[in-house]
Structure formats: structure tokens, C-alpha cells
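Hello,

Our lab assistant flagged a job as stuck in the queue for most of the afternoon. It eventually completed. Since we weren't sure the result was trustworthy after the delay, we are filing this so someone can double-check. Below is the sequence as submitted and the structure that was eventually returned. Let us know if re-running is recommended.
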Amino acid sequence: GYYKPTQVGPKLEALAKAYPQLAKSFDFGKSVDGARIVGLEITSNISAPNVEKPVVVFNALHHARELMTTEIVMHIAETLLTQFSVDSEIATWLQTFRIVLVPQVNPDGHALVHKGYPWWRKNTAGNTVMYGVDLNRNYPVMWNACQGSSGVRSDDTYRGPKAASEPETQAMLNLFEKYRPVANISYHSFSEVILYPFGCEQRLNTAQNLFRSVGQEMSNAIVDDT
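-- returned structure --
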């Protein structure tokens, strides 16, 4: 019952068509294998200039096998759009913010999982000899730092030959350059943790109290299944 990679773009387009005053879908890059990397922007009065509204991004599926994360972001999209007219809190959110949703950063890896490789984690870089890059380890900030990745191509945490070497990573960097979000949540499904900066350097975030407060509120709202 999980979304297949080829279903995500058409679903976002269908939502934008169903709610033209609130949403617009867009492509913002191509994967290693040429698949579309798609997003959905949601805000009240989507056709009006909204540059003054701060942007919040929700993204998912950096890691191919974490299928549930795509479901979460798609659910966010449907909830915001279907409840805008009946939920005053959601209406306030969309009147205040531009919300950008990216349900699958890694469409090629997603496709590989659906083809029968359920533990595949990376993208499909490598041409005829596929080795893949862990897109979550490929960003320029602190690339190859703190022993948080591997330089071995066969490793699940292979960071790539250089920072931002992958087209999927470049697409996300361009998206952030365009929208300049004030907040971003990246969904993963490996463990039940909430991570916020800085996890690599031994220094406190200048907004430590804000991150701790938001993280604690998120934690309190999650059902503990242990």
C-alpha cells in the first residue's frame, strides 16, 4: 500500500488541481537516472505574491528503504488542503506560512526498493556498476566530518566522491536557495529520535532553547510504542 515513486508526482499534481487556490506542484530537479524530483507548495491564496511569508519545508525519503516517510509528507499535504476550510488552526498556518513539501528526495532508490531490494538505502549512482551515495551524507555542511560517513563506495553511509556530487543533493540545495526556509523537518524512519543542530560539533546552537522546546513538544505528541 505504500506510494510507488511514479505515483508521487501525479498525486501532487492532482492535489494542486483540486485545490488551485491553495497549492501548486513543481519539478525542481532530476535524479541520477533522470526521474523527476517533485514538490508541492501550499499557502493561502497561492497565486498572490507571498514573498513576505516565511517558508517551512518538510522533506522525506533521503534513504530509499524508509518508505513510511513519504507517506507522512503526503499525509501532511492532504491534511492541510482538506482541512483548511474547516480547521481554524490550519487556516492560520497557511495564512502565515508558505509550506513546501518534498515527499521523495531519492526517487531512484525508492524505485529500487519496490523492485525487490527492500534494504537499499542510497541513490543509484555508479553507471553500470551501481554503488550509490547516501544523500543524507552528501551535503556540503560538515561533509566528511566527525566520522559520520564512509569513504568506501560499498558502505551504506558512503558520502560520495565530493560534497554535493549528486543531482538529488544539488536539487535540494537549489530549492533551499530559492525558498530560504526558516525551518525544515527531514523525516527518517530508522529510529525514534528527534535530532537538531549541532549533532557533529561540540557546541551549542544559538537557538538551543527554541529547538529543545519544539523538539520536546514533538516528542510529547508522538505515541510511544515501546
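-- support follow-up --
The delay was a queue issue, not a problem with the job. The result is valid. Residues 70 and 103 are 5 Å apart (CA to CA). The chain has a mean pLDDT of 94.
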